[in-house]
Every structure is written in C-alpha cells, then in structure tokens.
Amino acid sequence: MTRFPPPARSCRIALVGVPNCGKTALFNRLTGSHQKVANYPGVTVERKEGAFVGPAHTCLYQLVDLPGTYSLVPTTLDEAITRDFVAGRLQGEAAPQLIICVVDATNLRLSLRLVLELKALGLPLILALNMSDLARSRGYRLDRERLASELGVSVVETIAVRHGGEAGLVAAIETQASSLAAAAPVRLVAPSSADIERTQRESRRILDAAGYVVPLRTRALTRLDAVVMNPFFGPLLLAALLFLMFQAVFSWAAAPMDWISSGIDAIGGAVKALLPAGLLQSLLVEGVLAGAG
Amino acid sequence: MSEPDRPQGSQQVSLASLRKGERGIVASVLEGDAAVVGDVEGSTIARRLLEIGFVPGEPVEIVEEVWPGGDPMAVRIGASIFALRRREARAVLVQVAKP
Prior knowledge:
Chain A has two domains: 9-209, Rossmann fold (3-Layer(aba) Sandwich); 220-292. Chain A has eleven helices and seven strands. Chain A has helices at 23-31, 77-86, 108-119, 132-137, 144-151, 167-177, 193-209, 219-228, 233-252, 254-274, 279-292, and strands spanning 9-17, 35-39, 46-53, 59-65, 98-104, 125-130, 154-157. Chain A has a seven-stranded mixed sheet with strand order 2-3-4-1-5-6-7, sandwiched between helices. The longest helix of chain A has 21 residues, at 254-274. The relative contact order of chain A is 0.11. Chain B has one domain (10-97): Roll (SH3 type barrels), CATH 2.30.30.90. The radius of gyration of chain B is 13 Å and the shape is globular.
C-alpha cells in the first residue's frame, strides 16, 4: 500500500439536512471508521466529527455531522446547535467553510426550503440528492441540471447505502475545495412567517421548473396501512406475531436444541476415543465442548 | 366574511375540526395564540407548520385519527404525512366544500 504524506491543507465541512434524510449514513460512507463522537459542551447533543482525504489528496476534509433540522429557526436544542454551528457562533467551534445539504430525493418538497435558507447564509453550498436510486426506481422524475441552475448551487446524486455512492459528492467537494475562503462567522437574520411562506413558494416554483414529479402512492401500500393501522386488526396482528415468536422460542426450538446437544455429545465421545485420558481430553470434552453445547 | 376571491359554496374551518377522510385546502396559518414549541424561545407552532409545508393553497387530508378521541391525527400534506395534535392543528385554517 502506498503511503501518502498528510495533505497540506484542511477544509471544514458541515453536513446539514432534515431528519431522516440519510445524512448520517452519508457521513459514515464518506468518513469510514475515522470518526470521533462526543457531546457539545454542556448539552446532551451528540457531536460527530470525521475526516477523509479525497482522491486528489490535496486536502484533509473535516466533516461534522449536525443534528437534523427543518429550519434555521430552531424549536429544539439540537436544531439550535445546527443553526449556531453553520453560522459559526458556537463556542469553541470554527465556522464551516462549506455546507453540504443532504436531502431525500423522494421528499424534496420538505427539504428544499431549508436549502434556500442555507443558501441565504452566503456560504459555499453543495446539495446532495440522497436516495437517488430509490427515487428513480419508484418513478420520481427530476431535471438535476435545471435544479442546479435554478438554485445556483451544485447538485449531486448520492446513494449513501451503496459502496461508491458518494463518488459524485467527493468530486464536487474537491472542485470547490480549491477556492474556499477561510472560515468566518456569518450574520443570521431570523425569518418572519412571511419570509417562510415566500421561501416555500420559491421552492415550489423551483421544483416545478425542474420538473419534479412525485409518483402516486401505490394502492398496495395504502391498503396495507388500512389493515395494520386499524385500531382493531392492528393490535390483533401484533398479538398474533408475538404469539408466534413465543411459540418459536418455547416449543419449536426444542427440536433444534436436541439436535445440538446430541451432536455435541457425539463429538465429545469421538474426542474421548481419540485422545488419551488426561488434562487435554478433560479440557476439550468437559470445558470447550460442554461449554459450547 | 366576504373576501372576493373565495370560491362559491365553500367555507373556512379549523384543521382541528376535520375528521378522518376529510379534505381541504390550506387557507392560512394563524400566528395568533402562538404557543412555544419545544424548548427554544421564539419558536411557534405556526412557523414550524409553515416550514414543514402547511402553506396556503396546499391540499390537506386527514388520513388517520388515533382511537379513542381522535387526537393526535395523521395529516397528509403534499406527499408527506405528519402526526399533529388537535391543539396544534388549530393554527391552520382550511377551505372545505360546504356540506
């Protein structure tokens, strides 16, 4: 294996997104096992930082996985951490030089408003369309280049759960990394309700322009929901499943348990016949095999 | 009420008054009796509802109610389904067809 010298520069990146968009899966995919997990000082909000080096090997990317949020106007402590981090006003944390906003490609309507809010911060921004494989196979349609030009940011597709699904994002990071400015705190202006409505309208307009098509919910799924969520049949189904599990553990497991114990006994007998009586035989038969069985 | 752009044969009611299976169009989200959500000052239900997509013109549907009492309920807005308490849903006014 070739050893490279450590890259001369480092670059600080914040990973932002709405809850359940696959942000942490993407974080794991990018950083592998090079992660540090801690808490933000004084609060029980988890802080995950990781680092990776791109294929060009020019820069060490320090990635911070921030708590999921719908907005830069926080309603919880976690969301306040995210807002303060991206604005660079969190005590003891340097401001990010680049923001990666992760969105679920199957639920763009929910997240595009956050993208607009992040863009208004004025920091370099990359939009990662996560779960893009799922979106495509379920019949979602989107003109990615049009979305990028409407938003004015680079848009890449990612598949966090697949090996190599981050390649496009890494390439986009490398492209931007060469021209990144030093980190500096940005000014935050809390949006009014009218501002929120305006960004919602803008995100609708952009999605329409980019031809975002959401397929209709399949009938099978709706029917399944109707049964398992039913106040009568739902608990009944749960009870039946639990009963099956108890059955499996307490009665049906008896036969395999017998096979295992008779198998172990047979091996024990064979070892006894093979080895002379003594410490080793006793260790293997009474210790190892009896312990395993 | 007599706004000129209101379609005939419809009325505005609170989202909290709808029952399972009923649909409507979001008319407005009231900033009014703004209870604080979560633990951060300045956050209101109205703001969060707007952020997650309850904007005027958007169709909504009550897809499920928790039995008994019908509170909370599952509300479909666009392609997403959110669980809302009736208390929170009071902030949303919807346009429904007159019975």
